[in-house]
């Protein structure tokens, strides 16, 4: 009887250790990674976008693709490509895009909801359809505010306002600040 009790205890310990080992293997195979990707769509307002300001349609649709690294629950680093599309006035257009790198600082109110600020820099490019067409590139700063809600463990949504300071140049269009209001989705690789 004593041997049977010891055998049952050993079997129970082995089963518990085996289950703990299996859970550890499963967690390491699907461990949280700090990487995430996202896409946003929105509307851009080019402030002083055309030389002919009276007839300028200075609103455009935008799309942005981004990737990020979640440093901790408060800080993340993001890089992205933002296409600002184009603004028009009669017989003239200006189109632009930017590559950006920003620091994302979050203030969580719960596990699912946070507000955030972001700041960083960008490399912008603009071109027009003048005769001959002209293009310019520049580097400057960007900043913004937003709110984020995590729908699931992997999927989150954002509402964001972001400003790009002094994009474009005198040969293409007046130097413009571009303000973008967008909504987007993030996918976290967890």
- CATH level-two architecture of the largest domain: Beta Barrel
Radius of gyration: 25 Å
The CATH topology of the largest domain is given as: Porin
Write down the secondary-structure element order: HEEEEEEEE
Number of helices: 1
Let me know the average pLDDT: 82
Query: Helical amount among residues, as a percent range?
Result: 10-25%
Q: Give the distance, in angstroms, between the N- and C-terminal Cα atoms.
A: 49 Å
Shape: elongated
- Poorly predicted runs are 6-30
Name of the CATH first level of the largest domain = Mainly Beta
The percentage of residues in β strands lies in over 45%
Tell me briefly what this model is:
This protein has 190 residues and is mainly β. It has 1 helix and 8 strands, in the order αββββββββ.
Task: Spell out the key features of this protein.
elongated, Porin, 190 residues, 15% helix, mainly beta, eight-stranded antiparallel barrel, 2 domains, single chain
Any overview of this molecule?
The protein is mainly β and about 190 residues long. It has two domains: about 1-30; about 35-190, Beta Barrel (Porin), CATH 2.40.160.20. Helix content is about 15%, strand content about 60%. It contains one helix and eight strands. The longest helix is centred in the N-terminal third of the chain and has 28 residues, at about 1-30. It is elongated. The two termini are about 50 Å apart. The model is unreliable at about 5-30 (pLDDT under 50).
